[in-house]
Amino acid sequence: MSSPLYAWILFVTINPLWLLVVPALHSLQYLAVVWRYQTNVERDRADAARDPGFKVLSILGPLYRLRVLIFIVAGTILGALGFWLVPMALTALVPYDKQVLGSSLFLFIAWIFINVHHYFLDNVMWRRGNPEVSKYLFR
Known about the structure:
By secondary structure, the chain is an all-alpha fold. The chain has seven helices and no strands.
């Protein structure tokens, strides 16, 4: 899953502002993997529809749309807090030697923590040794 991420990094060589967009592109790529996994899970059920992709879309009534909207809003707020707001607040509130450690120490710490955490979670969830993942994603 991480090898296609290198394609997104090529955009950064064009313009460094792409660093702000690359995580979103990686998230879209991640959603495609989850969609394939869940589609295969639905297809394998005894009461499976002919095309589970359309079955999933057909259940999106008003309640589900509200849940998706809440999910998007919560994800945006948590992302802003974790990636930007809390690290910038810590940089402003916690005194440290900026000449030695740089002006964005807490931003660096937060981003490294989140990315290393993401790496280890992916390693556990999407490994080939996981029987469900092997059955529904790698068949």
